[in-house]
Amino acid sequence: MIETFSTVQIAVAAIAGLLCLSLGLGGKTPNDLTLGVTLLVEVLLLAQVVVSIVAPFVGNIATGSVLEFWVYLVTAALLPPLAGLWALLERNRWSTVILGVTCISVAIMVFRMNEIWFVQQA
Q: Is the pTM here over 0.70, yes or no?
């Protein structure tokens, strides 16, 4: 895991979440912007999967539980596509709020993954 990349990932997910939440609570239905920022969060998560596979082979080993890290990562990677599918099937303002909650949840999960990788001792 790369600390700078995960920090950027947390910031992007938090900003995307706040954007979707504000638009959803303002009455907007899912649109290209809200689905696009959620897709961006997912692309960053998929890049994190690749980084997390390669990192141990180049000497960047997790200090915490690797199993716990991967459970967080796989769960986080599943959330945006499921929320996006929900937003496409049920196009109302609450779907946009769900996109926001999903992005905020991903930000929190990546923060926790960062702690597992760099701070927590196994």
A: yes
